[in-house]
Specification:
about 50% helix, alpha/beta, globular, 3-stranded parallel beta sheet, Rossmann fold, Fumarate Reductase Iron-sulfur Protein, Chain B, domain 2, 23 helices, binds iron/sulfur cluster, 4-stranded parallel beta sheet
């Protein structure tokens, strides 16, 4: 390992990352125990410090971009737990996104890896394609044959399908959608996402209802495309920029004062459009403006004053989605909302901000590591003996629910927006 570097010692020979950013790391190792992949393998090269070392060596031409290096870089969840732990202010999220774009253009992967990544990239950012792909499964589920299908599937597909929530009534119909309206606190556009609008649109609609009740107006986006987070994580920055440009235009045209997403990775991606499009001559300034309008549901609800709620007797625990906690620094607001409901008892789980293994499409590309992290998360949840686990990201919701289903656990997994809506109007007996 290199001695601590305070300033560039060599000129980079490859344009892997913004080279100067690498020198924020002083190799102290304080991030290691916060890194889920290091906790799994205990290998330096699977730690934030080890990956930064590899990025620097790649940039300086001291390391070949062979399959080992690509494997260590791909193994990173992009959870940014290391950023929270780092006393030196290392911008690890930016470093890994830039490195992955370079890897994408300069390295090769095995055929099965390429195929998996192609399927994810061709399907998930496009809601119409995803709906079409899921249509047969929806029919099979309606006929009660999903368990039989899963047993007959090859393992890779079985693992993917296992992660899906129940498809009947998963909220893809928008019959109860809040219409656009004015509000005394300014207007909010809810970005319905790509995968989220197909598999977890109920959370979007509940977020709109909660915001409406809190006094916010609802603005509508003329066109919603993927926020680009999936592409940023996989190294496809070109397409991420295309998505970002479309969203910047749509958000500006909506006239919304604020924009939120019920998926934490999407909120973080939109909050970073200003950086992503900083060199765009047409939309650079607009992107910065849009990023400044990005908020988070719980923050807006807390700022509007806590709503009066009837009693809702239950015990629950809260899981911190990575990008919400480590990307946007939102930890207290969801807890404040939950604690404000009379009858709710919030029990903290161990390491609530340790990644559950979902991490965008990580649970599809790295099923074994993702499953190991899901097991840890499920252990922590079950140890609280809570009736509900509440979280604010659909990906975590699917990942944790799948693991709890495998264990026949009775713990109910709910998005924060859905839980708040349920507590505000519980079902009548
Ligand atoms: S982003 Fe997460 S998995 Fe990647 S190095 Fe940082 S803590 Fe580890
Ligand atoms: S905590 Fe920060 S400075 Fe220390 S090794 Fe990790 S990334 Fe580098």
């Amino acid at each position: 390992m290199d001695a601590p570097d305070q300033m560039p010692q060599r000129a980079p020979v490859r344009d892997v990352v913004e080279y100067e950013l690498l020198f924020d790391c002083v190799h102290c190792g304080l991030c290691l125990e916060a890194c889920p992949t290091y906790l799994l393998t205990r290998a330096e090269m699977d730690s934030p410090r080890g990956r930064i070392y590899q990025m620097k060596a790649l940039a300086e031409g001291r390391l070949d971009a062979d399959t080992d290096v690509v494997r260590h870089l791909d193994f990173c969840l992009g959870c940014r737990g290391c950023e929270t732990a780092c006393p030196s202010g290392v911008h690890y999220g930016a470093l890994i996104e830039q490195t992955r774009a370079w890897v994408e253009d300069n390295c090769s992967r095995s055929m099965p890896e390429r195929l998996k990544r192609w399927v994810v990239g061709a399907l998930f950012p496009y809601p119409a394609r995803l709906r079409l792909a899921l249509a047969p499964l929806r029919m099979i589920e309606r006929a009660g044959l999903r368990p039989m299908l899963e047993r007959a599937m090859p393992q890779v597909l079985r693992e993917w399908i296992d992660l899906l929530p129940p498809l009947n009534g998963s909220g893809e119909l928008r019959t109860e959608q809040e219409s656009a309206h004015e509000g005394r606190r300014g207007s909010v556009a809810v970005h319905h996402g790509c995968v989220a609008q197909v598999l977890a649109d109920r959370a979007n609609r509940n977020a709109e209802k909660l915001l409406g009740r809190a006094g916010y107006g609802i603005a509508r986006l003329g066109r919603t495309v993927c926020c680009g987070a999936l592409d940023l994580h996989s190294g496809n920055r070109r397409r991420a920029r295309q998505f970002a440009r479309a969203n910047v235009r749509a958000i500006r045209q909506s006239g919304a004062d604020f924009v939120i997403s019920t998926a934490s990775g999407c909120s973080t991606a939109m909050a970073e459009y200003g950086e992503l499009l900083k060199d765009d001559p047409e939309l650079g300034a607009a992107a910065r403006e849009v990023s400044a309008r990005v908020r988070e549901l719980s923050r807006l609800l807390v700022e509007s004053g806590l709503p009066a709620n009837d009693r809702f007797e239950c015990t629950l625990t809260y899981h911190d989605a990575c990008h919400l906690a480590h990307g946007l620094g939102i930890r207290e607001q969801p807890r404040t909302l939950l604690r404000s409901i009379p009858g709710v008892k919030l029990i903290e789980m161990d390491s609530s901000d340790l990644c559950c293994g979902s991490a965008g499409s990580y649970n599809l590309t790295h099923p074994e590591a993702a499953r190991a992290l899901a097991r840890r998360k499920a252990d922590a949840i079950i140890a609280t003996r809570a009736e509900y686990v509440v979280l604010a990201n659909p990906g975590c919701q699917f990942q944790i629910a799948a693991e709890l289903r495998r264990r026949n656990s009775s713990v109910k997994v709910m998005h924060l927006a859905d839980f708040l809506a349920l507590a505000a109007s519980p079902p009548q007996d």
